[in-house]
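Exercise 7. Predict the joint structure of the components listed below.
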Amino acid sequence: MLNNDRLSKLEIKKRLLEKLNTVSGNQAEQESQIMISYSANKKNYIDVNDSEIDNELINKILNERIKGKPLAKIINEKGFWKNIFYTDDYTLDPRADSEILVEQILNDCLQIKNKNKFNFLDLCCGTGCLGISIIDELENSFCDFIDVSKKALSACKKNIIKFEKQKNSMLFHSNLFENYPINRLKNIDVIVCNPPYIPTINYLSLNNETLYDPRISLDGGELGIDYYIKIIDYLINVKFKGSLYFEIDPIITENMYKYLLEKGIKIVYKKVDYLSLDRLIKITLPNTN
Ligand SMILES: C[S@@+](CC[C@H](N)C(=O)[O-])C[C@H]1O[C@@H](n2cnc3c(N)ncnc32)[C@H](O)[C@@H]1O
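Solution:
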């Protein structure tokens, strides 16, 4: 632990790394930098001066981290895309894996000429990290956010206020599309969705750190594809004409691709994440042509 002595940033980092190596593994370096910048109330480690570091706060954080609580759940913050998002016990902490959805949607939208206004729907929004990151990059865009958890929606609202996106956002408390006005769907160009997708049997044996995220954000039913099926069936029924970008995971791809084939749904493309694992599918629905 750190004492009251004034230590340099590098010395503090070195001491933190020694403590974090066992609990944080290959994240130890990144986590030590986050702890230091958080204690100094700075966005980036590089901008922190030695005199700004709060040793007492770092000790408190380290104490909890050593007991196994994820860093994001201790400091209620997680970096995603270009911002630091508020997160808490009621939301899934944003994952770097999901950034590929933002990247791909931005790539596709920026290629569409003659269209400068996009309407998105961030379905199962949690912290809102996907929708907010997208509208932050696209001028004149608008995003509807849906979540069934009121507490997750309130975290999303905090982030919308933090990044000053109130004029470009609307929140809906809804079990999927149940309370979402159907007429709004007509104007939606893109749905982005990272639904709960861990098969229940796998959920029950998840590692301790993942279990700090709420079950409602992870458990995707017996095969992990319950949410995809409900969402796609609904959208086919209402003849949704836009594009759908889903986060996926190798744990569900076999069942997912089988289901899409049976339904005659075209996969526009798949993308892998930085570990070369299937992470995203873009689909269009059969009735839209
Ligand atoms: C995997 S998390 C994704 C959160 C965020 N979009 C992200 O990528 O970090 C899934 C989210 O779906 C929400 N959810 C679960 N069941 C839902 C339902 N029936 N309708 C709407 N949202 C739901 C959970 O509350 C959780 O916030």
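Discussion. The beta strands are 77-80, 83-86, 119-123, 142-147, 169-173, 190-193, 243-247, 266-272, 278-284.
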